[in-house]
Amino acid sequence: MPILTIESTCDETAAAVVDSDDKVLGQCVAKQDELHRHFRGVVPEVAARAHLERILPVIDTAMNQADVAGADLEAIAVADRPGLAGSLLVGLVAAKTLAVAWQKPLVTINHLHAHLYACQLAVDRPVYPCVGMIVSGGHTSLYQCDSSLDLTYLGGTIDDAAGEAFDKVAAMLSLGFPGGPAVSKLAASGNPKAHAYPRSMIRDDGFDFSFSGLKTAVRYSIVGPGQQDFSQLDLSDDQKADVCASFEAAVVDVLVTKAAKAIRHCQADRLIVGGGVAANGVFRSQLQDAADREGFDLVIAPADLCTDNAVMGAIAWQKIRRGEFASLDVDIQPGLQR
Ligand code: KG4
Ligand code: ZN
């Protein structure tokens, strides 16, 4: 019997029905971009309310596609950490309610581990053990992964996540939200060497990242120190493209350098990469170059599984196989970063 998986950690409401071979029988993702665009970032209260409106129709759609009823399910899985508190609560309460109503066991999922598991869904060969990298709107982290559920945190961002930096730069240039796709589209026609933006912590011993200095450097390069007002910004499309290309080059340089370093440190022969920023074309091709040069196997989640979705919740099967079920009084863990 398949499982129902639910994802509502940030601003995507998603559900999927997945069988024990990770085959997707039904799935639905409701994005909220249009609700947050006006604010140039995700507003937690708005996100939680939208999840509440959408969660049942989204679950219905996935279940109808799969042509299953509650009685046909093996378990209900839900991402309960990390994420926005209000958003997580909607998913967890929905999952608990269905678990009680349908008398099915509940399985809780770490959203970050699920992002990495998206790579396992992309290929037939086993991807674990490996080094795992998550580059999303909320996270930039590296893990040593002994299995899909046994991960050791190597390091992560000490301030902004890579995706958040993309979103902030897009906001400065009035490119809309989410910013990553818009920045990378414009970057394609710009000169990555036009601005010498910093590559913070690139030569550090550890595996931490910092992108707030880069964000500030971009700001100073377009409005000058101390100025906060971007509304009067008078940059040509070519100038904006140069900012985007130079910014993207700096982010990608740091990410690729640290990922390759983690591979050497762990003596691993495979890197798996998940999260929204992994959809970035320059990042993907430079990682592939590094993999070819250094001789490691690279698996990047396919674009539709990079951004938040419930299909990656198929990782719940791994927990079910270990007998790791959650009790009905389990609570959300919004701040858990690892
Ligand atoms: O994984 P995700 O959907 O949500 C989180 O869990 O955070 O990632 C969303 C992030 C956003 O910051 C978005 O701007 C970024 O991924 N993103 C990209 C691209 N597509 C999405 N960043 C750079 N280049 C892209 N092509
Ligand atoms: Zn995510």
UniProtKB/TrEMBL annotation:
Binds 1 Fe(2+) ion per subunit. GO terms for biological process: tRNA threonylcarbamoyladenosine modification. It comes from the Bacteria. GO terms for cellular component: cytoplasm. Belongs to the KAE1 / TsaD family. Pfam families: TsaD. InterPro entries: ATPase_NBD, Gcp-like_dom, KAE1/TsaD, Peptidase_M22_CS, TsaD. Fe cation binds at H111, H115, D308. PROSITE patterns: GLYCOPROTEASE. Required for the formation of a threonylcarbamoyl group on adenosine at position 37 (t(6)A37) in tRNAs that read codons beginning with adenine. Is involved in the transfer of the threonylcarbamoyl moiety of threonylcarbamoyl-AMP (TC-AMP) to the N6 group of A37, together with TsaE and TsaB. TsaD likely plays a direct catalytic role in this reaction. It is found in: Cytoplasm. Its cofactor is Fe(2+). Residues 23-314 form the Gcp-like domain. GO terms for molecular function: iron ion binding; tRNA N(6)-L-threonylcarbamoyladenine synthase activity. It is an enzyme of class 2 (transferase). This is tRNA N6-adenosine threonylcarbamoyltransferase. Substrate binds at I134, V135, S136, G137, G138, D167, G180, N280. The keyword Translocase does not apply.
